[in-house]
């Protein structure tokens, strides 16, 4: 099942991506292999995720989240944590 996710990097920045295996992807990020952006900002922690119907939906949601302001992303994370 595909997921759209947000991780918080060690420097406090947020990274949004998609994957079919959250656990494996998080491990890759923390090993410096997940993405160029996160490789120098480890460790990262998973702060938000949502399951999607398919890869296309996951990628479209990723693109929408990436266009959000940091403030909106933090609101999304807060809603997720409090649900």
From TrEMBL:
Specify the superkingdom. Bacteria
Keywords for the protein's UniProt record, in alphabetical order: Endonuclease, Hydrolase, Nuclease
Q: Which InterPro entries match?
A: GIY-YIG_endonuc, GIY-YIG_endonuc_sf, UPF0213_domain
Domain spans labelled GIY-YIG: 1-75
The answer to whether keyword Signal applies is: no
Q: By its UniProt entry, which Pfam families does this protein fall under?
A: GIY-YIG
Question: Could you tell me what this protein is called?
Answer: Putative endonuclease
Q: Which organism is it from?
A: Pelosinus propionicus DSM 13327
């Amino acid at each position: 099942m595909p997921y759209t996710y947000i991780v918080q990097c060690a420097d406090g920045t947020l990274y949004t991506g998609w994957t079919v295996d959250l656990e494996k992807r998080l491990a890759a990020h923390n090993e410096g292999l997940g993405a160029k952006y996160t490789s120098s900002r480890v460790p990262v922690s998973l702060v938000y995720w949502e399951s999607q119907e398919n890869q296309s939906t996951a990628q479209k949601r990723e693109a929408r989240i990436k266009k959000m302001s940091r403030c909106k992303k933090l609101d999304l994370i807060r809603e997720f944590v409090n649900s």
